[in-house]
Amino acid sequence: MNEAVMNKTVMNQSVIVAITGASGAAYALRLIQRLAEAGIEQHILLSDAARVVLRQEVDLMLPDRTPVADALPAILAKHLNIGTEGMHCYALDDWFSPAASGSAGIKKMVVLPCSMGTLARIACGASDNLIERAADVILKERRQLIIAPRETPLSSIHLENMLKLSRMGAHIIPAMPGFYHRPTTVDDLIDFLVNRILDHLDIANPEAQRWGE
Fold first, then answer.
1. pLDDT, tens digit, for every residue of 141-156?
2. Which of 94, 101, 148, 187 could form an SS bridge with 90, CB 3.0 to 4.6 Å?
3. Within 10 A of 188 (CB to CB), how many other CB atoms are there?
4. What are phi and psi of 113, to 5 degrees?
């Protein structure tokens, strides 16, 4: 396969990235950055609570008046030092976005970090906003849904919802960084989780440190 064909193949990949109001905004930003660097098309969905967490945890200020979907690509590109090519953002009530329908052909979705409220609504098929609808589409089409829950301690309700989604075929990858790679910075811990998610997305990930290396 020549380089031009390989590049076209990469750009034809699409991933929905949903950011909710759980703690762990830095995980989502690193995933967006890594996907952009790999040339992967992204459909980014942002909950209202996620806006608050982004401001609180990483000092990423989003405008109150301008529709966030219009402003987000440029803001993320500046914050993460990436380009906006292949980056699409949608309002949570944009039912005409590709994320809202299985016929659009998007085969992968990551909810990172996933709040317990979003987890519960996905598990019961609520579909009250675009994040929930997109996850419902991925599940009904039997495509790849990765959920990265971030909460502690976990109640029986949380655990039951995770088990329910796992039985539906979702990949549950909790925000639980490991330490066998001898992390020395917060970035090392962030990369541990993001590398695991990239592996499950089957995206080339030469930066990942492997067990035994």
1. 999 999 999 999 999 9
2. 94
3. 14
4. -75, 160
